[in-house]
Amino acid sequence: MNKKLMALCGILVGIAVVLGVVSNKINQESATIKKIPVLESKRDEITENIGTAVYIYMPNDNRFKLTKTAFDIKDTSTREAILKEVSQGVIDKLMEKGVLSKDEKYESTGYLDGKDLYLDLSSNIFAQAKSAKEEVLIIYSFVNTFCGIDGIDRVKFIIDGRTGKRVNFINIDGFYKANMVI
């Protein structure tokens, strides 16, 4: 009986050592900051311009659906720079299409958490929407653009640093995924 007990204790000690080594390795890997893979566009064709190209989605001329246009990111040095430049690109295209007023200043900041993007926009972006349809087009201009970048699956809107249920017409409480039908 004593030999069986010693053998069992030896096996348990061996298992404990193996689990300790594995646990230590996992803890070391999780303690390091993991770099999100380089944000790349899901494009069919690659341009020869320097920088990463993405598609920016914006309302078409009659504001019934979204169309896409290529946009080259010039500053790919950090994730924050990429998010800021793409967000400003969407805002610029919305101003170009007359959806947003050119007389106002619009703020935007993006925060990545895994594959989720928390997009903090100034409230005056949504204040420009005259109908629920226009607000949906503004929302999905941002959502489809950012979800078209590898590494981002969903977008949650924060308005002026606060989460909320509604801006004007549409509930913005949850996460949005790309919707190319709009």
Q: What features would you describe in this structure?
A:
With 182 residues, the chain is an alpha+beta fold. The protein folds into 2 domains: 1-32; 52-176, no CATH class. The chain is 37% helix and 20% strand. The chain has helices at 2-31, 79-96, 124-127, 132-147; strands at residues 52-59, 66-73, 108-113, 116-121, 154-159, 175-176. The longest helix has 30 residues, at 2-31. The protein is elongated, with a radius of gyration of 24 Å. Residues 79-168 form the GerMN domain. It comes from Cetobacterium ceti.
Largest sheet: 4 strands, mixed
Order of helices and strands: HEEHEEHHEE
- Note the gap between the termini: 74 Å
Poorly predicted spans: 30-51
Helix content range of the residues, please? 25-40%
Structural class: alpha+beta
The oligomeric state of the chains shown is single chain
Number of helices: 4
Radius of gyration: 24 Å
Q: Which of globular, elongated, flat, extended, rod-shaped describes the shape?
A: elongated
Q: Which strand order does the major sheet show?
A: 3-4-5-6
Binned strand content: 15-25%
Mean pLDDT: 79
Organism: Cetobacterium ceti
Domain GerMN: 79-168
InterPro entries: GerMN (IPR019606)
Protein name: Sporulation and spore germination
Furnish the topology, listing elements before pairings.
Blueprint: H1 2-31, E1 52-59, E2 66-73, H2 79-96, E3 108-113, E4 116-121, H3 124-127, H4 132-147, E5 154-159, E6 175-176
Parallel strand pairs: 4-5
Antiparallel strand pairs: 1-2, 3-4, 5-6
Helix pairs in contact: 2-4
Domain GerMN: 79-168
Protein name: Sporulation and spore germination
Pfam family, one: Germane
